[in-house]
Structure formats: structure tokens, C-alpha cells
């Protein structure tokens, strides 16, 4: 049966080449966009260099203080003081990395201004994150405690600041009017990974702001690394117990909230989706699926129109098939399968084009250091999108066609 | 084999009502070869479509092999047509995108028949109509007579009890028409198939067992040409 459907589908595709071209172009173009977007989302959300342990990590990116009386709310990242006092002391994590969000600053070299994103970190940051050191090494616990002006710089910063110098470890870099000795150079991280990304990493103890100030809100995040994924619930429970004891600091505020979440939830927590147990991941995925569906709807409707006109050309065939024993359901099945074959062909072309598009995007440096790939997850997602697209564009024409009366269908030849 | 009781068919639009069949009572015995004649628009094809369960009567009953058919669902009708009926159309209605063998296989596609068995049965049917050497051809590569032979092979491949032919020689010259008629007669005599044929051709009709004439949707004459079924 499927072989017969396949033969018919291929014959129909070959019969009206212009329609086939329009259909395949629409499907391939849509699938290309979907695949590239999926590759981007996968790159942003999945465990990638240097955050390779996301599966056993929890992120604390936000504190919330609420005034339930006046419906007031104050959301902010944590202070170093808070994270040092309440998070570094947790027993269940293996390690706790504390780092600031990157701060844009400037450096000057040969009269040229360089934008440098500066990040303050503690020493365990280098153990939680798995950076590739091109040369040198990270700064140590002792250097952090001593407040030494040492820095780990990115490969991009090395190139921009030092030019083609072979080795820069031990040399001095001046940023934000402060001189730092380069301790190491790491492979650059794209800005789409805000916890790990910076052009230059320095000890939190050299920050101009007073990191000891006993306040809750600030500009720091923490990454809690468990020994395994199984440790995460215990880490979350321990942190929840700690949070329960913290009192809001702002006047009139009576509720303090903070969560240790997996990577994606930690960012969605502050979004309109975030007020759920899973940190809004489910709702965000639903919203994403809905947007994707709407995005695919327009080309799908176009394909529906083409399919209807193609199917109506085949009314005689429909009449014959019904006369010889095909039920309406069988014909719906046949035309959906045929449309899925067409969609699958378009999908294959779309994925090939996506490979090229991704190479172009990676090469063009639209986002520095991002390296999109089509892995199994992205490929799987594209195939699911392909099936959804095939069903979206195939079900209605197939249903309409199955409603044709045999006698009418045979007369319409 | 086929029983029609007071069958009426009326087509209605917003402004007009047209009676295509008016009180048709007809019994066709097993193995009988019946021809239906009448002027254009008298309801011949409508009658054949109702017998073939391709259309439903407005009133009356249609029994095939003793089975009441008017209450059957779309799925049951499809199965019934597949197992009991074979169709031959004036304009062949072959699927141009499929090769001859695939066209003939069509009725078997909707039964649980393996691909191998489908191919074997289809080859046998094609051999019976003298087209064993045209299996790989597409319909567009065949003459009108050859196309109608393929259509006959398709109609008989599932060994249906009844073959319904709607002006099977209407699009063919007399020589081709005679060949097709001989095939149908052979099918009736050797395989015992019950055949109902609509035709405009008196000579062809006179070769069958029985001739029914219609006029304005009514049965005006029922004449046995061979005594065996009288």
C-alpha cells in the first residue's frame, strides 16, 4: 500500500513541476528557518563550553522581595555578600561558583578604545566552569584572598589588546584605569551565555564596589555544582530552607523569595511564565510551540491551497479509488501520506540549506564565538516540525477530497 | 443476485426537482448478462450507479446477493464494492500516473493481499485480456481498446460476483468495440460473472441475455433475448 502511495506521490510531483517547486521551496524555506532557530536555542540552552555540567548544576540568578500589602516587588540579582553568606556555606553542593554579570568597561591600546566586558569571580568559578586555557592558568584562592590584580582574559581580548603576541601570560593589561597581570588566556565564550561570558575575569576582591556590604541585592549570580544530577533536589531543598530564614531588607517588604533552578528555569523564573513549580519551562515551551505553529501556519495555508487544487485535478482518480473499495478514511490516509512524502523531501532540502546557512552564520560572526551545529536534538526537532507541517498542510485538503461523491468525482474528469 | 425494489432517484436544487428514476423494480439473476438501453438522459447511468452503490436512491431498496445496502456506512459500502463489484467505465478512468500493472492491482490494494499475490493476480488478469506484454506501460502509451482491456482486467482481478459496465464500447471504433464485447461475453460465459451493461449500441445489447429499456426514468421494456434466464 505505502509503495503504491509513494509511486503516486512521486508521479504527482513530477506532473506539475512548477507547483512542486513552489511547494518544496515553501517547505524548505520554512524548515530552514525552524532548523536554524532550533540550532540557536539548542546552543543557548544545552550544556556547552564552558558550562558542560549544566545537567548537575543549579543557578541562582535572582532574588525577589515583595510587599504583599502594596503589591510591590523588587527583583534583582544577589549581592556578593548574600551569596557568600547563604550560598557558599551550603553543604550539599560540591562547589559554588560566584560571579558577577559582566560589566561593560573600556581599555585603551595604541590610542584605540576597546570595549571590554569585565566579570568578577571567586576561585571555584574556574572549577565549576570548564574553560579551555590556551595559555597560563586561572587565579587561585590565595590570589583572590590577597586581592591581587590578576586577570584571565579571553582569546579575543588577547588578540584585540596584544595583537599577534605569542604569549601574554605575565604581561599587564590596563582596563578601567586599573592594571592587571594576565594569569591566563581562555577560549572565548559567546555573549549568549551570560553566566560564563566575559572578555576579562578578575577576582571579586578587586571590585571597586564594596563586596562586603551587608545587603541582599547586587549584581552577582551563583552556580551550585552537584556531584551528580541526583544531588539537585537535595541542593534545592537545602537552599529553600536557607531562603526561608532570610528576612527582606527593604522597608515595607515582607516576603523574600529566591530559587536554585536549572539553567533555563533560572532565566524564565523572572518572566511572565515563571510562577510555576518548573520555573516556567513548561509554559515557555508551550508558548514556543504556539509561536512555531503560527509561524508555520502561513506557508502551510499556502500549501493547503496548492494541495487542494492538485487534489481536485485528481477527482477522477478519487472516484476510481472509491469505486474499487477505498473508504473516505483510506483516502484521507493516502493523501496525508503523500503530503508527508512531499514535506519530507522539502525537509531534507531544508536541512541541507540549514547546514549551509549555519556555516555562513558561524563564519560571518553575527554573534561572536557562537558555534551553531545541527546535532541529534536539532535534527529530531526539525523532523517533528516537518511532520507537524505535513499534517497542518495535508489534513484539510485530504478531508475535503474524501468528501467528494464518487459519481461527481468521476464526472469531473 | 441484484434486486431493486421501487427505486426512485430525484435530484433537487433550490428551484427545480428532476426525477431521474421513477419506481424501478428489477431482478438480475446470478450469471445473467443484462443490458440497459434508452435515450440520453433517461437514467441509464444513474441506475447503474445505484446498482453499483456509487449513488444512493431517494426511495426504494437495493439488495445485492440478498444483502440490504441502503443502510450501509461509507466504510461498509467501500468494503462491499471492493469484494462484490467491478466497474468498467466508458472513459476508462485509468490512473495515468500509475503503470498498467499498478492500475490493475488497485482493487486488491484495499484488501489484505500481499504485494506478491497482487502482482500475480494482476498479471493473470492482464493475460486474460491479452495485455500480458503491456504491464510496464503507462495508460498514455496505450490505444483506446487497450485501455479498456486494462479497465476490464482491473474490474475482474478481484473476482467480483458482479461487473458493471457503463458504455464500455462507447469510446471505441466498431472493431475494438466488438473485441471488448467478446471479452465481456467470455467473462460471463466462462467465469460466470453477472454483468450489467449500459449501452447505446443495439447490436451489442442483442448479444446479451436480456435487454431492459428505460425512458424518462421509467422501465418501459424488459425483454429476454436468451431463454436461460427468462
From TrEMBL, chain A:
<dbReference type="InterPro" id="IPR003838">
    <property type="entry name" value="ABC3_permease_C"/>
</dbReference>
<feature type="transmembrane region" description="Helical">
    <location>
        <begin position="284"/>
        <end position="304"/>
    </location>
</feature>
<feature type="transmembrane region" description="Helical">
    <location>
        <begin position="21"/>
        <end position="41"/>
    </location>
</feature>
<dbReference type="Pfam" id="PF12704">
    <property type="entry name" value="MacB_PCD"/>
</dbReference>
<keyword id="KW-1003">Cell membrane</keyword>
<dbReference type="InterPro" id="IPR025857">
    <property type="entry name" value="MacB_PCD"/>
</dbReference>
<dbReference type="Pfam" id="PF02687">
    <property type="entry name" value="FtsX"/>
</dbReference>
<dbReference type="InterPro" id="IPR050250">
    <property type="entry name" value="Macrolide_Exporter_MacB"/>
</dbReference>
<keyword id="KW-0812">Transmembrane</keyword>
<protein>
    <submittedName>
        <fullName>ABC transporter permease</fullName>
    </submittedName>
</protein>
<keyword id="KW-1133">Transmembrane helix</keyword>
<keyword id="KW-0472">Membrane</keyword>
<feature type="transmembrane region" description="Helical">
    <location>
        <begin position="340"/>
        <end position="361"/>
    </location>
</feature>
<feature type="domain" description="MacB-like periplasmic core">
    <location>
        <begin position="20"/>
        <end position="238"/>
    </location>
</feature>
<feature type="transmembrane region" description="Helical">
    <location>
        <begin position="373"/>
        <end position="396"/>
    </location>
</feature>
<feature type="domain" description="ABC3 transporter permease C-terminal">
    <location>
        <begin position="290"/>
        <end position="405"/>
    </location>
</feature>
Automatic annotation (TrEMBL), chain B:
<protein>
    <submittedName>
        <fullName>ABC transporter ATP-binding protein</fullName>
    </submittedName>
</protein>
<dbReference type="Pfam" id="PF00005">
    <property type="entry name" value="ABC_tran"/>
</dbReference>
<dbReference type="GO" id="GO:0005524">
    <property type="term" value="F:ATP binding"/>
</dbReference>
<dbReference type="InterPro" id="IPR003439">
    <property type="entry name" value="ABC_transporter-like_ATP-bd"/>
</dbReference>
<keyword id="KW-1278">Translocase</keyword>
<keyword id="KW-0067">ATP-binding</keyword>
<dbReference type="InterPro" id="IPR017911">
    <property type="entry name" value="MacB-like_ATP-bd"/>
</dbReference>
<keyword id="KW-0547">Nucleotide-binding</keyword>
<dbReference type="InterPro" id="IPR017871">
    <property type="entry name" value="ABC_transporter-like_CS"/>
</dbReference>
<dbReference type="InterPro" id="IPR027417">
    <property type="entry name" value="P-loop_NTPase"/>
</dbReference>
<comment type="similarity">
    <text>Belongs to the ABC transporter superfamily.</text>
</comment>
<keyword id="KW-0813">Transport</keyword>
<feature type="domain" description="ABC transporter">
    <location>
        <begin position="2"/>
        <end position="230"/>
    </location>
</feature>
<dbReference type="InterPro" id="IPR003593">
    <property type="entry name" value="AAA+_ATPase"/>
</dbReference>
Amino acid at each position: 500500500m505505502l509503495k503504491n502511495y509513494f509511486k503516486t506521490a512521486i508521479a504527482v510531483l513530477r506532473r506539475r513541476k512548477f507547483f512542486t517547486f513552489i511547494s518544496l521551496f515553501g517547505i524548505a524555506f520554512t524548515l530552514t528557518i525552524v532548523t536554524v532557530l532550533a540550532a540557536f536555542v539548542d546552543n543557548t540552552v544545552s550544556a556547552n563550553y564552558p558550562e558542560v555540567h549544566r545537567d548537575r548544576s543549579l543557578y541562582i540568578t535572582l532574588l525577589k522581595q515583595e510587599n504583599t500589602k502594596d503589591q510591590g516587588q523588587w527583583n534583582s540579582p544577589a549581592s556578593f555578600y548574600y551569596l557568600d553568606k547563604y550560598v557558599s556555606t551550603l553543604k550539599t553542593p560540591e562547589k559554588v561558583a560566584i560571579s558577577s554579570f559582566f560589566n561593560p568597561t573600556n581599555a585603551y591600546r595604541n590610542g584605540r578604545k576597546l570595549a571590554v566586558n569585565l566579570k568578577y569571580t571567586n576561585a571555584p568559578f574556574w572549577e565549576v566552569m570548564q574553560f579551555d586555557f590556551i595559555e597560563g592558568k586561572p587565579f587561585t584562592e590565595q590570589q583572590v584572598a590577597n586581592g591581587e590584580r590578576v586577570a584571565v582574559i579571553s582569546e579575543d581580548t588577547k588578540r584585540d589588546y596584544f595583537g599577534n603576541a605569542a604569549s601574554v601570560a605575565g604581561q599587564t593589561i590596563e582596563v578601567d584605569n586599573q592594571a592587571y597581570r594576565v594569569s591566563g588566556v581562555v577560549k572565548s565564550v559567546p555573549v549568549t551565555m551570560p553566566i560564563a561570558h566575559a572578555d576579562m575575569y578578575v577576582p571579586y576582591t578587586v571590585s571597586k564596589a564594596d563586596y562586603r556590604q551587608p545587603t541582599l541585592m547586587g549584581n552577582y549570580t551563583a552556580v551550585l555544582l552537584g556531584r551528580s544530577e541526583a544531588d539537585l533536589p537535595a541542593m534545592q531543598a537545602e537552599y529553600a530552607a536557607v531562603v526561608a530564614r532570610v528576612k527582606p531588607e527593604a522597608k515595607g517588604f515582607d516576603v523574600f523569595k529566591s530559587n536554585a533552578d536549572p539553567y533555563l528555569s533560572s532565566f524564565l523564573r523572572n518572566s511572565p511564565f515563571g510562577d510555576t513549580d518548573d520555573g516556567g519551562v513548561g509554559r515557555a515551551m508551550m508558548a514556543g510551540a504556539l509561536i512555531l505553529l503560527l509561524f508555520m501556519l502561513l506557508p502551510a495555508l499556502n500549501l493547503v491551497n496548492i494541495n487542494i487544487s492538485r487534489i481536485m485535478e485528481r477527482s477522477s482518480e478519487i472516484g476510481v479509488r472509491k469505486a474499487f473499495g477505498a473508504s473516505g478514511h483510506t483516502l484521507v490516509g493516502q493523501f496525508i501520506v503523500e503530503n508527508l512524502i512531499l514535506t519530507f523531501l522539502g525537509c531534507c532540502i531544508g536541512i541541507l540549506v540549514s547546514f549551509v546557512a549555519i556555516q555562513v552564520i558561524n563564519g560571518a560572526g553575527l554573534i561572536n564565538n557562537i558555534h551553531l551545529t545541527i546535532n541529534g536534538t536539532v535534527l529530531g526537532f526539525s523532523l517533528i516540525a516537518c511532520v507537524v507541517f505535513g499534517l497542518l498542510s495535508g489534513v484539510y485538503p485530504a478531508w475535503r477530497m474524501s468528501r467528494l461523491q464518487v459519481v461527481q468525482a468521476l464526472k469531473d474528469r | 443476485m441484484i434486486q431493486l425494489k421501487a427505486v426512485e432517484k430525484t435530484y433537487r436544487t433550490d428551484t427545480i426537482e428532476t426525477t431521474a428514476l421513477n419506481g424501478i423494480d428489477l431482478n438480475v439473476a446470478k450469471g445473467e448478462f443484462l443490458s440497459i438501453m434508452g435515450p440520453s438522459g433517461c437514467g441509464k447511468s444513474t441506475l447503474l450507479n445505484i446498482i453499483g452503490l456509487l449513488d444512493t436512491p431517494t426511495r426504494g431498496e437495493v439488495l445485492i446477493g440478498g444483502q440490504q445496502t441502503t443502510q450501509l456506512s461509507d466504510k461498509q459500502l467501500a468494503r462491499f464494492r471492493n469484494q462484490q463489484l467491478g466497474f468498467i467505465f466508458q472513459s476508462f478512468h485509468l490512473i495515468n500516473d500509475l503503470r498498467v500493472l499498478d492500475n490493475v492491482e488497485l482493487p486488491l490494494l484495499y484488501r489484505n493481499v500481499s504485494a506478491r499475490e497482487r502482482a500475480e493476480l494482476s498479471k493473470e488478469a492482464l493475460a486474460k485480456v491479452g495485455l500480458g506484454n503491456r504491464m510496464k506501460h503507462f495508460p498514455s502509451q496505450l490505444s483506446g481498446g487497450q485501455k479498456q482491456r486494462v479497465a476490464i482486467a482491473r474490474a475482474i482481478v478481484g473476482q467480483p460476483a458482479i461487473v458493471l459496465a457503463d458504455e464500455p464500447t462507447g469510446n471505441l471504433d466498431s472493431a475494438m468495440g466488438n473485441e471488448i464485447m467478446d471479452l465481456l461475453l467470455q467473462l460471463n460465459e466462462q467465469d460466470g460473472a453477472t454483468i450489467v451493461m449500459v449501452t447505446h449500441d443495439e447490436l451489442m445489447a442483442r448479444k446479451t441475455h436480456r435487454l431492459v429499456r428505460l425512458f424518462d426514468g421509467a422501465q418501459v421494456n424488459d425483454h429476454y433475448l436468451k431463454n436461460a434466464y427468462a
